[in-house]
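Field: COMPLEX_INPUT
Field: COMPONENT_COUNT = three
Field: RESIDUE_TOTAL = 993
Field: MODE = joint
Values follow.
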Amino acid sequence: MTSILAVDDSASMRQMVSFTLRSSGYDVIEAIDGQDALDKIGDRHVDLVLTDQNMPRMDGLTLIRELRCVDRFKRTPILMLTTESSDEMKQAGRAAGATGWMVKPFDPQRLLEIISKVLPN
Amino acid sequence: MNARANAVVNAVVERPREYLTFRLGEEEYGIDILKVQEIRGYEQPTRIANAPSFIKGVVNLRGVIVPIVDMRLKFGLGSAEYNDFTVVIILNLGARVVGMVVDSVSDVMELSPEQIRDTPEIDSVVDSSYITGLGTLNDRMLILIAIEKLMGTAEMALA
Amino acid sequence: MSDTHTSESSGDVFDLSQFHGVFYEEAGENLTSMEALLLETDESNADDESLNAIFRCAHSIKGGAATFGFQDVADLTHVMETLLDRLRRRELAITSGMIDTLLESGDVLKHLLASRQSGTDAGIDCTELVARIGAFAHGTGAAAPAAVAPVAAATAAPVAASMTEAPAAASASPAAAPLAPGERVLEIAIGPLDQPRLADNVVELFGEIPGLGTIEPSDDGKPDAAQTRHFRVVSTVTDSDLLDLFSFHVSREQVSIREVGAAATAVATPVATPVATPEADQTFGLFEDLPEPVAAGVQAPAAVVVAAPKAEAPRAADRAAPASANLESSTIRVPTEKVDQLINLVGEMVITQAMLAQTGRGLDAVVHQAMATALTDLERNTRLLQEAVMAIRMIPMTAVFNRFPRMLRDLSGRLGKKLELHTIGEDTELDKGLIEKITDPLTHLVRNSADHGIEMPADRIAAGKPEHGTVTLAAAHQGGSIVIEVRDDGRGLNRAKLLAKARERGLSVSDSMSDTEVYGLIFAPGFSTAAEVTDVSGRGVGMDVVKRNITSLGGSVEIDSVEGQGMRVSVRLPLTLAIMDGMSVGVADETYIVPLASVVESIHMTASDVKSVGGTGRVVEVRNEYLPLIRLDELFDVPRSVEHNGGIMIVVEAEGGRIALLVDDLIGQHQVVVKNLEANYRKVPGVSGATILGDGRVALILDVSWLIRRVRH
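Field: COMPLEX_OUTPUT
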């Protein structure tokens, strides 16, 4: 089963995303911030990462940089969930190694569309 | 005054209602069945110091503390004995649960408005403003009481 | 945005309303954090972590509000976020006007969310508030920003003056990170124009609309061969928004916008997605293959500015995201009704266990050994279960204390006094039910100190006191109670005035009353005049109501004061109303319960130990001290058939006083479930509640505090 890591410090957002993804057959790992995400993935395989930016302890950009240092995450698609699509954000995301970005708010249907675009096969 | 008060109270009684009847001394009384929660035997309550003599104390009713009032003592009717036949009517009056000791409980009777008469000026131990009427059935006379009002008065010392 | 989304392909319906509840709770906590952080912020020395944490609160609420379609909330939080973003990046300095406005916004958000939650219309027009925050955010607010980047200041300043200067500054220093985040440098061509002057109207837009940006002609004011005007613009506004604005004066087809600024390298543009034009779909994009970080000179500082404060914020962060960032322990939210039911059931179980224990005592322990052992185990487990369940409802006093910083800040402004709050022992725990009930009385006491206790700044200085008046809230456990104090360093109470006023009101007083008694007059009904009764929560509240509220919780309240120096109100409450350790005592044929927490010791005695005083009073000597002796059979008028000599003496202590009680027997010690006598009956003097014994009978619980107070008079 395709496995997605969803990182956001807002419980309501996490719940919404998990519900949407699980309803469509994805397996979802939830984390409340970057540090929690790193703790939770352990040795697991993850097919896609969705991460918010502004989080306590470890923010999204730092998480992305950390993930890219891990061999099995070098090629994993990582999408930044961001509230604005400024060039500054894009540059920062690109520099950190994100695969792409998605602007919040998004509706569940859109989320599913984009994920299916981004996932290989 | 009395008749007028009764008319007002009676105006509320429109359709047949059910009354639980009980005895205090020589007299029979009736109260709205909806106010009655249950009927129990008498058990020795826990005395409360400095309470009026007609408040016997409190008992444990499945975890709830309920005061017990002896109506016979309050109204000076009959001799207040406590034996196996003594009955306590547990009333649920919305704001409070109270038990009242009576001599005996009779039956539940349905009275239609026609069977209820105005109360004449009688010399009753129960303040006539709490008597809603006199019910007649066969040759029995029931003194119908607004029990919730009565229990809420200052003289009952429950509040 | 609607709450449900249907997909034609899958037929799924996504009902987002199921997440609303979590969002409301989350938003509520974010608002509470935000308020606390704002109140703590020192304008002259705001720290990064706090500013970031405050930003995150607004940001988080905005994200959820936008996702779930709460547009009014999203709009307000969006502009707050804009301001907070600039503040955390130190582009603006925070001022007390900003703090006040943000606090006000927090209140408005609470209302908006509450209305949403209850399905009613908030009826609040946020336009003015949004504009005010916008003005702060773009530096045209009341406070002059101590701006950091020169260009930021220039673009923020009234635009009319900067039209020619700012863009020049921007273009003069292109490489050294001169642009504020989000700012783009654009070359705009407007034409062909029949009347090139139309383009001037566009220029005026930048003068009329604060925060739009700056515009400078790059063609020296002369149209080119194609009757087209050229301008250089620095703005944070998107192309489509700019076009919207320009279209007031010129038609869209006449406008072309090209981004040339430092932030826009060739890399940025090809992020076009499968979906249409760059300006249409800004909602999703893919970078190309992971390249090396590009244009490190400009981007890296921005990235560092963004990442560093957030990565390091331990303290503020923990405070800022209490619900979602449950860092050390996980929690479950449980409705209080479930907890209450649990407590009731455990209470019933305690009673049943007591009955079993009672029955078990009648059995031969040797014959029924297994039963006896099991009953002992049951008793221990029941007690542990009960303690664990009661602990669930204990929450720290912070729940009460945390409303006071805001209240004092508001009062400061309103009364024109300088007020400071100290809190001590906010970790002290109290049963949730009591916390809810003690909040109003405490609020009134604090307000009383601020209103009547603390003097105006000028008076304080004249009295040699610091200008700031201090209100102190302290909570601590003492035995089986909690003591909460409200202290102030104000003018204190004047004994003579109180006595005079009491006489005026027709209260019976005498000059021989102790200070404590005189101060206690404040609680007498009718003492406060209507003019002095301060309306805390819309209801008329007087000190007498405060005292009544406290005593109805089984507590007591006392005042201490030194004139000119201040006042202290001490509130004592039982830790919990529901369960208590009791000592059951026999008095003739009746059983009473003495709260174990107030028992000092018990001593066998004989009649000769009792000495009489003044004919009616009795005292007994205990450890070289004479204590008043109260016979419980006399106190409660217990009928006796036979005279009783001797008995057991129990020394009890409460409210700083000690007395001795005479009873017949000590029956035992056990936990009692406290039942409310007043639910169906009324308050009985000397009795604080009732409990149900193992045999099902009711026993009354002695109110030791009442007894000691009575003896004092």
